[in-house]
Amino acid sequence: MVGIIIVTHYTMGEALIACAQHIMGRALPQLAQLAVSKSDDPEELVQRAQALIRELDDGSGVLLLTDIYGGTPSNIANRLIVPGKVEAVAGVNLPMLVRALTYGHQSLDIAVSKAITGGLEGVLYMLPSMQSEDKGV
Questions:
Q1: Domain PTS EIIA type-4 spans what residues (predicted)?
Q2: How far apart are CA 37 and CA 78, in angstroms?
């Protein structure tokens, strides 16, 4: 099973994990998070992330999901990439995470591809519904 580590600013990863567990309706032992704050030492974060990678990698590889490309979390994730073994995708959102979890039993390259498409397809412009009385505004 592909391991997944969410590397994000502050507690965003915790919230995503809680939401994913709610949606998936089960514990997600292949999922962990690394919270990054301004006061953290990047070298220490890299070491903590490497320990998480060792813990989650059962031989299937690890997918790192990070929030904003170019921020400290993505810079840390970038330092951890080992092509074919540890891959990273920036722009994490809940649809991306759920899709990655759903396809985590497949190969790492498929999990990466499904995470990206899940993230992209999860961003939609919403039109008002025909039931305009139920706006709640």
A1: 1-123
A2: 17
